[in-house]
Structure formats: C-alpha cells, structure tokens
Automatic annotation (TrEMBL):
<feature type="transmembrane region" description="Helical">
    <location>
        <begin position="129"/>
        <end position="152"/>
    </location>
</feature>
<keyword id="KW-1133">Transmembrane helix</keyword>
<protein>
    <recommendedName>
        <fullName>Metal-dependent hydrolase</fullName>
    </recommendedName>
</protein>
<keyword id="KW-0812">Transmembrane</keyword>
<dbReference type="InterPro" id="IPR007404">
    <property type="entry name" value="YdjM-like"/>
</dbReference>
<feature type="transmembrane region" description="Helical">
    <location>
        <begin position="67"/>
        <end position="85"/>
    </location>
</feature>
<dbReference type="Pfam" id="PF04307">
    <property type="entry name" value="YdjM"/>
</dbReference>
<dbReference type="InterPro" id="IPR016956">
    <property type="entry name" value="YdjM"/>
</dbReference>
<keyword id="KW-0472">Membrane</keyword>
Length: 182
C-alpha cells in the first residue's frame, strides 16, 4: 500500500477509536501517523526511508523489505521502547498511538497480494488476504473510501478532540525541566 493510502485508511480506523477513548488530539494523531509510516523504514524509496537513508539501507540489507519491521514484534518493540521514554511523563498514550499506527500498517499490508509474515522468524506462514495490489485501483478506492468515512465522522460530530497536554505551556515546561534539569 502506498504511504498516502496507509495514512488515510489508518486514520479512518483510528480517529473514531481515539475520539471514543478521549485520546484524539494533535500529538497522538502525529504519533499514530509516524507509527503508520515506520514499518516502511525497511524500504529506502519509501517516504520514511528517504528521510533515514543510511538507516533504511542498513535495515533493508539486514532484514529485507517486509522483514522484521512488518512483524508483530516491531510494534511491540516500538511500544516498549517508547514506553520507557514516556513513562516518566505519565504519557503512555503516546506509546500506544505509535504502536497502534505500526500495527495498522502491518494489518493493511496483510490485505495486499504480497501479504506479510506476522510471526517471522518464529513462523514462515504468510498472512494475506489478497484484496489489492500496491498502487492499484482497489487500493486507490480504499483511500477515497477512507476520506469519505473520515469526512462523514467529522460531519456527524463523531471526531471530538480533547485538550492536548503537550500543547499546554505549563505542562510542556514541566516536561522540558524534567528532560533538561538545571
């Protein structure tokens, strides 16, 4: 799936869930979308790969495309690593959003004709429901459908945001002091 459609489909799935769980704010959506893009860090021509060329080339050389970053272990690792960084700030939701985005990416790739190996290296079973070809008409239709669904949810008032603690100057100052003590 192309990155634009990954972002559209993932947001169509995640935004209503985030609204229902009172976690829909700018910071969480940004981290969700970073998580959506991160599994393709194993492809130097991807949007995230072009911005991390040295790292992207190494990951592709070692694991290949749709290798380790397209297994369930990648979002789990993202969650635990980011949780270690955010637990001090009582901001575990950030880790959930990052890992949820990566999980959605892998789930969406499971519906491509290429599929993914969710449990690699523990299993060589390829999970795939060949619904679309990357860049094909079905994928583009999913992207348009996602836009329409997001618009519908927004127009019905279903995407209510909550205050973003990271945009609160007092809280931001507190976190910066914790990171960079005097």
């Amino acid at each position: 799936m192309l990155y634009t459609n990954h972002l559209l489909v993932s947001n169509a799935i995640a935004l209503p869930i985030m609204a229902q769980t009172n976690t829909l704010n700018l910071t969480n959506v940004l981290l969700l979308n970073l998580g959506v893009l991160l599994p393709d860090i194993d492809e130097p021509h991807s949007v995230i790969g072009q911005r991390t060329l040295g790292l992207s080339n190494i990951i592709k050389a070692v694991f290949g495309h749709r290798g380790l970053t397209h297994t369930i272990f990648f979002p789990l690792a993202l969650f635990f690593i980011s949780a270690l960084l955010t637990v001090k700030f009582d901001a575990l939701t950030l880790s959930y959003c990052l890992a949820f985005g990566a999980t959605l990416h892998i789930l969406e790739d499971s519906f491509s004709k290429n599929g993914v190996y969710w449990l690699k290296p523990l299993s060589k079973f390829k999970y795939q429901i060949p619904l679309y070809t990357t860049g094909g008409v079905v994928e583009k239709t999913l992207g348009v459908g996602a836009i329409l669904f997001i618009y519908y949810c927004y127009s019905q008032g279903k995407l209510t945001t909550v205050p973003d603690p990271f945009l609160n100057p007092a809280k931001l100052s507190q976190w910066l002091t914790a990171i960079f003590p005097h």
